[in-house]
Write a structure and sequence with these properties.
37% of the residues lie in helices and 27% in strands. It is of the alpha/beta class.
Length: 339
């Protein structure tokens, strides 16, 4: 049965804030009882299944905002959301607790900041920003108001990545990581940079200058497009290719006491005891990062403690953005860029 949404205009924001406070109080008093997290989706229409993914993770998606009011109505009906918003003010003054933002920058930055200022928890579906200062303000406002801010990264939901992160200490001091077939583009690079931080530690220097690379190629068909120096001592060499996928790339992580090779679901660990192979689980969804981020948001809101977010936050996106900017400067000006 098709939902016929109501087109909602702006209402009294004071009433909406009071509703959110009552909702928080009711959730605290409910104890172990489950009170659904009421959310709205802001979307550009590029993904039509987002609302259903969010619902599967435990969010009650009750409204949708699109670039135009007629699009809001049509897409809300498609998403089975009972309300469509005429504009951002209408969304911010609705009786919701969280907003999921599926837009490209700079729109995503603006809406995230306005949402946090209105007392809403924030989930950013895309790991991208065009205004780091606005994003820092989102984190500051959210943390002052005890609001959760979560960013969807696919690498945070990749079972193989978790397994490797737990196994890294067995390798001893890290020396090198190579990646063949990494996803290209801003979002693909963001995933690799986030993953590097989790496995190899903070990045100290970045090179995207072909003339400055410590190695030109990883294989005959895999030129190095990004090099990183990390606090663990590991040098990271990355080959990016158009159409590459995180779970289809080949990762080789070397340490003084062993080596790990990741190819899709297969993780091979070689050390002085021999070679062991582990097959990690299949991803839970075609959009695992979004599912993981939505679960994290629901968990933090239900527990009433944004500090319980274990996944990526705005701070992680800011770190990745700083590294991407350093890579851009390296490519344009040449040489390594220290951080």
């Amino acid at each position: 049965m098709t939902t016929v949404p109501e087109l909602v205009g702006p209402r009294d924001p004071v009433v909406a804030r009071a509703w959110r406070e009552r909702r928080r109080t009711a959730r605290r008093l409910a104890g172990s009882g489950r009170t659904p997290v009421v959310a709205a989706l802001v979307t550009d229409g590029s993904e039509r299944a987002t609302a259903s993914v969010l619902r599967e993770a435990g969010l009650d998606v009750v409204g949708l905002l699109a670039p135009e009011p007629l699009e809001s109505l049509a897409w809300a009906a498609d998403a089975e959301a009972p309300r469509a918003y005429s504009d951002l003010a209408a969304l911010l003054s609705d009786e919701i607790e969280a907003v999921c933002i599926e837009l490209a920058p700079p729109g995503s930055d603006l809406i995230a900041r306005r949402a946090a200022e209105a007392g809403l928890h924030v989930l950013m579906v895309r790991a991208a920003t065009g205004d780091p200062a606005a994003l820092r303000a989102v984190a500051d406002v959210a943390e002052d108001a005890d609001l959760a801010h979560v960013v969807a990264f696919d690498d945070r939901a990749w079972p193989a990545a978790r397994h490797v992160q737990a196994s890294v200490p067995t390798l001893g001091r890290l020396t090198q990581m190579t990646v063949v077939g990494a996803p290209s583009g801003p979002l693909g690079r963001a995933e690799i940079l986030d993953l590097t931080g989790r496995w190899c530690g903070d990045v100290l220097a970045v090179c995207a200058d072909p003339e400055g690379m410590p190695a030109r190629r990883l294989t005959a068909a895999a030129p190095v497009t990004l090099a990183l120096l990390t606090t663990s001592g590991a040098t990271v060499l990355v080959h990016e290719r158009m159409g590459g996928k995180l779970a289809e790339a080949t990762f080789t992580l070397c340490g003084e006491q062993g080596r790990i090779v990741v190819e899709g679901r297969r993780v091979r660990l070689a050390d002085h005891t021999g070679v062991r192979t582990v097959w990690t689980p299949e991803p839970v969804s075609e959009r695992p990062g979004l599912v993981e981020a939505a679960y994290e948001l629901v968990r933090a809101v239900e527990l009433g403690d944004p500090a319980m977010v274990r996944g990526a936050t705005v701070h992680d996106l800011l770190t990745v953005t700083r590294l991407r900017e350093a890579a851009r400067r390296s490519r344009d000006d040449g040489g390594w860029v220290e951080l």
